[in-house]
Write a structure and sequence with these properties.
The protein has 274 residues and is of the alpha/beta class. The chain contains nine helices and twelve strands. It has a domain of 182 residues: P-loop containing nucleotide triphosphate hydrolases (Rossmann fold, 3-Layer(aba) Sandwich), CATH 3.40.50.
Length: 274
């Protein structure tokens, strides 16, 4: 149960179509993000997961339909106001050359500053808390471009946390991380959701981690929302076959008691060769 309730902001996509140049990616997609919950977007490569996240964050303008925040088009919301409510960690972000970890994470505080406002103790506390939560405090004075891929990913997550938004969108936040750090990041996001009520939407490739950590799954196929709902609703053998073209078996995860997908490949025997 959340120990502190944030405003129940409602993020909605209505008849959303979007793409790049002449290429259409999303086709008439409808989605309401459950407020105060963790949502994971899953699907095969090139199905439109990142395009959906970019559209929900206003980085990409729709060709048809709209994205609404609390009933108002996000394209009509002032940028600073939107950045105070909605944060985004895009896929493979690029840091300015030579910037230190502390300076990059501090940039997460920019939406909270007006033309005349000064850096405050609250800003210091937000940055320190973000560094501590992602275990990057010891890296604070190091240039970001000298870090490993996994370290950089945790620093970018720290910047998103320092922004302290009510909605947080993350495109593959576990990229470049080994399994222990993947679990650590997902535990961190779960803590954030439970302690502050932050609405979290993330693109994940690992179906079983998505089912373990998310309250709500969105499974996409060919630019459309194929099915959405609880992990028990979405992770079925029929849905896995439709979305991924993969035969599978669904069992119960012994750790989380959520569904777990076991892929079936061509080589099914576990016996030793003669």
């Amino acid at each position: 149960m959340n120990t502190r309730s944030l405003p129940a902001h409602i993020l909605t996509a209505s008849d959303l179509s979007a793409g790049y140049g002449d290429r259409a990616v999303l086709n008439g997609l409808d989605l309401t993000v459950p407020p105060g919950r963790i949502t994971a977007i899953v699907g095969a490569n090139a199905c439109g997961k990142s395009t959906l996240l970019r559209s929900l964050s206003r980085l990409l303008s729709p060709r048809r339909g709209q994205v609404l925040l609390d009933g108002r088009s996000i394209h009509r919301t002032p940028p600073r106001r939107l950045a105070q409510v909605l944060g985004l960690l895009p896929q493979s972000p690029v840091a300015p050359e030579g910037i230190t970890v502390a300076d990059l994470v501090s940039r997460g505080r920019h939406p909270h500053h007006g033309m005349l406002s000064r850096w405050s103790r609250k800003d210091d506390e937000a940055v320190a808390a973000a560094l501590e939560a992602t275990r990057t405090t010891a890296l604070a004075e190091r240039p970001v471009d000298e870090l490993s891929g996994g370290q950089r990913q945790r620093v970018w997550i720290a910047m998103a946390l320092a922004q302290q938004t009510d909605l947080l969108l993350l495109d593959e936040p576990t990229t470049f991380l080994d399994i222990s750090h993947q679990v650590e990041v997902l535990d961190l996001l779960t803590d954030l959701n439970r302690s502050r009520g932050t609405t979290i939407v993330m693109v994940l490739h690992d179906l079983n981690l998505a089912a373990r950590y998310a309250d709500f799954l969105v499974a996409m196929a060919d630019g459309r929302l194929h099915v959405s709902g609880t992990p028990e609703t979405v992770l079925t053998e029929a849905n896995i076959r439709h979305v991924f073209g993969l035969d599978s078996r669904i069992i119960t995860d012994p750790v989380s008691d959520r569904p777990m997908m076991l892929p079936i490949g061509r080589h099914r025997s576990t016996g030793k060769p003669d």
